[in-house]
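Dear colleague,

Following up on Tuesday's group meeting, I ran the structure prediction for the two-component complex that the binding team flagged. I've pasted the input sequences exactly as they went in, so you can double-check that nothing got truncated or mislabelled along the way. The structure tokens for the whole assembly follow below. Feel free to forward this to whoever is handling the docking comparison.

Inputs:
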Amino acid sequence: MAVYTDVGDDELRAFIALYDIGEVLSCKGIAEGVENSNFLVTTEGGNFILTLYEKRVARHDLPFFIALMEHLSKNGVACPIPVRGRDGIALRELRGRPAAVVTFLAGMWPRRIQPFHCGALGAALAALHRAGASFGMTRPNDLSVTGWRRLYETCRRRAAEVQPGLADELDAELALLEEEWPRDLPRGVIHADLFPDNVFFREREVSGLIDFYFACTDFLAYDLAVCLNAWCFEADGSLNVTKARVLLDGYRRGRPLAADELAALPLLARGSALRFLLTRLFDWLNPPAGALVRPKDPLEFLRKLRFHRGITNLGSYGLDA
Amino acid sequence: MAVYTDVGDDELRAFIALYDIGEVLSCKGIAEGVENSNFLVTTEGGNFILTLYEKRVARHDLPFFIALMEHLSKNGVACPIPVRGRDGIALRELRGRPAAVVTFLAGMWPRRIQPFHCGALGAALAALHRAGASFGMTRPNDLSVTGWRRLYETCRRRAAEVQPGLADELDAELALLEEEWPRDLPRGVIHADLFPDNVFFREREVSGLIDFYFACTDFLAYDLAVCLNAWCFEADGSLNVTKARVLLDGYRRGRPLAADELAALPLLARGSALRFLLTRLFDWLNPPAGALVRPKDPLEFLRKLRFHRGITNLGSYGLDA
């Protein structure tokens, strides 16, 4: 969430008048995230989030995301609910961009991750996967193994600007992952980007999940591997085994992991680390024009990737052998 | 308003617990403005603005600003009201910065200025000046004529980077303004920065004034000169005489202008144009580290300055001779 596109008072008033949520009282651009322009809109009906989808989100994917949030919220997942206009339409256009109004979720994302956060996250992720099982639409994960090489090729020549020798290491890693990536694990709807800033808490409970704009159909255990990378490492680059165990236990209580899913975990975690390394590398080398946020350090994920590469048994994630 | 300093969920919860406004439900950084870090905080008590004062606002000035907002709101001016904690204190500290919570104002600032906005603005400015007359504190305007040379000296050598010959023109202008600046016009509390993004409207009415962090004691007519520059010029650099007339008429209905104030208007407008030219020039040459906003064009105010320099009679502002 950032602000790439300004919305004027007149056009906002006209836009919000299409909904049954009362007069606009206020609209503030939100200084968070990187993908879309987000505004906190207060109306007589309460607080809402207005999102203008910028070019990184493909227009043809939006019906999937909107329908997914509607489906999940109907199935007990606390997430933003797309608000339909008086005409029944949830996805429309504003300032030449696709735009949607969604409900506002109470809660704050945790800055200092503690084990209880990871346990609650695991349970919420399992609940998301269960609720997603009855969702009728699919969307390929274009940021999984089949998409990495194309992304990597756009950065490969300049990888040394970030760290000498980086290209050699990534060449080898990518070749191995393409060769050994699992073909047959349980699949379903995954969030695919469940970092702490996408998970709201009230007290010690998850109060909502946001930002479904990378959601897709993929291995469910891959979502868990993303969370392992996003939640369980300390600032010094070491894995906090307690957090990993609590995350995995929390998940398994909601959705048991099969033996092949467990066995694939280190490889899925390497893949997930590479995915964020590559997108951050791309953003580092090509900062989006007009972005009001600083690019994130790609090398954080190189260190995580190396950690998972060294895993010889699942005890390293806090699991019993 | 921008976000220079992040506030974590734990520290925010602890901070808000000092007030009697309920549990924090959400906190979003606001992507607007340039001076301070601002957050829209939703609690069980409603929406509030949390401001962390960054280094551009002098700590010793804060009691003036807080007391001024309290005074004005008690005297009928719609503006943010500082919220006092359970201990009676409104100004405290968060993340090593002075911080305050103020009430949230409904309304949006106008992007496309129409004459009715200028009329309502004039009336609101006069009401502000009237309410300020009973305010007991004073604060010198360090961005008026006595402060310009010091600011200019920090930019003078590099002025040509922005426009060739700029230094020569500003040398002459500054010398003239220092010589001819009025000494004895009606004084009082002025806002000193009443640009459109600091004035909220609902429908055609002003619903509130914000951002009092340049407020000071100075010529009341200087505030009007700031508004003339901020509201009455078109994008092509020309003055819209209708807007100027409506602004001045709206003001005079609420507070009549004396003959010497009217006569000084072109000079005050030149001074006000120079003031914004200089601060923008400074920011252009020294963009604040970590600012998530782009610096504004200083030359916009050079064009305005030149316009006012050419004024030979007040008819150019839409006033009768």
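Strands of chain B lie at 24-29, 37-43, 46-52, 92-94, 97-103, 187-190, 199-202, 205-209, 216-219.

Cheers,
M.
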